[in-house]
Every structure is written in C-alpha cells, then in structure tokens.
Amino acid sequence: MGEGARCRVPLRANMSNKIIVDVKRVAELARLEFTDEELSVFSAQFQAILEYISQIDELKLDDVEPMSSPLPGPQRLRPDNPETGKGCRGLTREAAVANAPESRNGFFVVPRVIE
Amino acid sequence: MGLSEAGIRELRELYKKREATPGQVVDELLRKIDKLNPRLHAFITVDHDAVYEQVRQAEQALGRPDAPVLCGIPIAIKDIFTTIGMRTTCASKILENFVPPYDATIVRKLKAAGAIILGKTNMDEFAMGSSTETSAFGPTRNPWKPDAVPGGSSGGSASAVAACMVPGALGTDTGGSIRQPAALCGIVGLKPTYGRVSRYGMIAFASSLDQGGTMTRSVYDSALLLEAIAGFDPLDSTSADMPVEPYSQLLARPRELRVGVPREYFVEGMDADVQASIQGAIETVKELGARIVDISLPHTRYAVAVYYILASSEASSNLARYDGVKYGSRSGPAQDLNNMYKDTRAKGFGREVRRRIMLGTFALSAGYYAAFYGKAQRARRLIQQDFDTAFGQCDVILAPTSPSPAFKLGAKLDDPLKMYLSDIFTIPLNLAGLPGVSIPCGFTKEGLPMGMQIIGRQFDEKTILSFADMYEQATTWHTRTPAI
Predict the structure, then answer these.
(1) CA–CA distance, B47 with B101 (Å, rounded to integer)
(2) Residue B47 at interface with chain A, using a CB cutoff of 8 Å
(3) Strand pairing class (B436-443; A107-108)
(4) Residue A84 has pLDDT above 70, yes or no
(5) What's the pTM value of the predicted model, to 2 decimals?
(6) For labelling alongside A67, which of A102, B85, B226, B336 has CA 20 to 30 A away?
(7) Residue from B465, B395, B436, B467 nearest B211 by CA
(8) What is the homologous superfamily of the domain B3-258+395-479 according to CATH?
(9) Can you tell me the ipTM of this complex?
(10) Closest-CA residue in chain B for A20?
C-alpha cells in the first residue's frame, strides 16, 4: 500500500486562509471508500476537526525538539536472530495462515498483481 | 455481601479460609452476566466451557502451598488483548472472526498468576471513542443509568466491574480510555506509566500513547493486579526495564504530601456537580494532612489538538495492516488488489475508525507532515515540560477525570469534536507518559458517579496508589453499587 503515499494532496487556500482538503484524494491514499452521503457529512466534520487542531499554529515551536516517545533515550533493539518458543515465534506455518481469508498450501492468496 | 460483590482482596481471604471456592464464585458471576449482559452489553465473549476448565485447574492449585497470588480470581479482559484460542475482535467487524495464535504478555502473566479469564469485554472499535458506542457489536450501557454511556473506550470493562459481574478487568488507555470510563462508572481505573506494562499482544492504536492497566472496585485491588501484569518484556521494544514494586504492600499513608491542583483544569463550562465534587475532595485531602499547591500547566489547552494529530497519525499507520490478506475479513473483487483493499477496509471499519485513519493520513501526507505531525510532536514536548515543572512544586497532582458525568447514549455521537473534548483532562498524561489513577469522589444529584484522577511522576505508581488508598479509606463513595 505504498506507492500512493508519495503523491501530494492538492492544497488550495481560499480567502479566509482555510485549508480545503480533497477528501477523496485522502481516502484514496488511505485505501478507504465513502458513499457520497458519507462524504458530505464527513467533509464538514473533517473541516471542523482541522480548524480545531490548527490552533497549535499559535505556539512558537522552532526551538523545541520533536518528541516521539514519552520515555527518554533511544529505542531498544534486539539482535536480528531467529528465536523460537517465545511469544508467537514458535508459530507453525499452519497457525500463521489460519486466520487468513484465503490461503493455499500454507501461503496467503491475494488477487493477481502481475499480468 | 454476596460473592459477586466481593473484591479481589475479599475473594483471596474467602479462599484462604475455605469459605468459598472458585467454582461457587464463577457460578454466581456467570448467573449475574446471564441476567445483566443482555441489558448492559458489557461482554462480547464469555466461553463457559473455557471458564470451567480454568476453575478446575484453580481448585486443584488452591490447595497447594505455592498457589499463585491470583489463584481462582476471575478477571475480564478488554477485547483488545489477544487471547490464544479465544476470539479477539477489538470490537471491529474487520476482526469479527479473528482467533489469535498467541496470548498478550499481560494475559499470559495473569494466567501464570492463577487468574481465571472470565471473558472479553466490549469497547469502542479499535479503542477509538469515549463512550463505547462505536463498537461494531452495539453499545455498552452504564449500570448506574442504562440510558447513559459507560464512557470509553474501556466501557465494557468499566460496566462489568461496576455492575459486579467481575471483580476486576483489564483496560487500555491511549487518551483516557481506562480513567474516563472508571470515573463515569464509579470504579477505580489505573493507567500506569508508559512502558510499565507490556504492549505485546495489545492490538495497536497509537503506539507511543497506548498503555494497558487495571479496573477494579478498590485501590488495593488495582495495586495487586498491577503487580501481576507489570514488568519488563523483551517482546515489546518500548517496555521499560524498571523494577516492579509490591504495590499492594506499600499502601502506607503518605506523610506531608504536596498536592498540586492545576488551575487550567477548572475550565469554564465545566459541570457544576463535577466542580463541587473536586472541591470537596480537596477539602478532604487537606483534612488528611496534604498541602495544596496551586500549579499551572499552561499548554493544557493544546493537548486535545496535539493528541488527535499524533494518535490519528499513528493509527493510520498501525491500521494499514488490515488489508484482507493475513487475517481479518476480506471483501470486494477477487481480481483487483487495490479495490480489494478499499472494499475490505470500507466495509470492515466503522465510521469513527475511518475518520481517524483519514485524519492521520492527511496529517502525514506530503505537504502537511511538517505543519501537522511535526508541529504536534514539538508541542507534545511542551506539554511534558509543563508536568516536569509542576512536579518541582508538588508530589502528586489532583484533577477531575472527566469534565462531565455520564452522558446519554447518542448525545455526542454525531459531533466528533465534542466527543474528543470529553478527554481534555486525561489526554495530557498520555502525551507525557505519566501514571494516573481515577477514583470515585462523589455523586451527582441524579445519582451518577464522578471521579478524580491522581497523577504522578513517571514510574511513581507507588505514591499515587498510596494517596488514592488514603482518600478511599477516608470516604465511602467506592462502597456504593448500582441498583441494577
């Protein structure tokens, strides 16, 4: 689901400097679909939420370091070695595909992607 | 007191004195669930056979001298935690038939401590909501007033504990989802420090904010449950390597505690009953010897905006995994991958989940990333720094949990922004990674419970639990149960 994410969402600014979002385009990026009725309700709500969250523009943030985790320090990584027996790492192939909507011979089945 | 009203502490005593058996307790609780669940809809799944299998094991283990600490204690699990062999839905249609091949770490720990997993509780879909109305399986109701919401997203756990269908439950808290329903249902809800409890097997919503915790009818019971579920887990890269303390044995009355009261938490338009209950609580803790300190958390007003940008962004990324391939439901044309994705997700996700994925996708998209996600990450630090400064002047912070008591079903469902503002007092803790416990502190004129939260420094669960226990011992709010 990656290639669309690089596409830019068109930005249009109207007279009052409001952000007008192309909701259909965002839905495309998110691999979601809406009916026309949902879309009209949703667009209005989305606009109200965007205006509300835009209040962070009042803050002076240039000298503030971004924070991605509440805990200090770098995230811990483990050596990239295969392990078995802990958590789901002892998972058999059958168990791994047991919840798949469609599987065959231990593989996930998806619609054809290569012509 | 009937067996269903007994808390975890009382059940342990009864087992020890051989005045009750896990089988008798479970019989009573299942009878109660059969009677009340059709009305309250607190549970999504209760598997009687699986429960009685655990009862048999517990009854054998109880006789042994090395019986584990929660042996034979029934606990309900929010349906966001994976349970091996037991359906885990996250209250979403997309996971309607998902049977996990592994246990969440904290479920595994509860089982190792001897607890009986009684069932899986209802919640807002993917924990996105403050009322348990966004569940794909229908809303949960508040046992104090069945036309009111129980709060959310852990509303099923809160309703079940408050209605004495189970003595304790697990919840998760991303922006208040343990504390707010605890307040609205009149029980104790503890959100530990970020990293205190493993997130392994807890279905991800917003990974830098999500934290599992406890919901019980007393502070002692939450302390005891926290002991069982806390601790370092190599399977969660954000799990903190910090020693777990025997919280239930450390509930000593704190001496000369400085209690910060943030002026920004007493906002205009706040419910008058809530305001009065907090004022009353402040008077009570003064009489108990606490010194009240006026503190300021100046960036509080930005917390909801910062939260909805960050939480939605993380959610849009985390929920990309629901693509109709590896697990979950699939729909749409079998010959076109892209349309299969879209149809699967459009049919599998409810309205609120789609709304947040959209918001997050937008906030992370090229051209908007810096303006929304980047800024929110910086603003998050200001909110954490507010708390750092405040804790220079005080040891705990006392504040309302929710600006209003339980509201009617449907009251906020069509106005997402109004719903988001229900979490204005709980969200800042998640952004800062702090522990907080909500405890009952009063009732409205209509008889609805209200809660206050005690907020502590990171990893200082001991102090907030001791303080909450002291308040609980001095008051009787927690002894009331709904007449349902």
Answers:
(1) 17
(2) no
(3) unpaired
(4) no
(5) 0.95
(6) B226
(7) B436
(8) Amidase signature (AS) domain (3.90.1300.10)
(9) 0.88
(10) B362
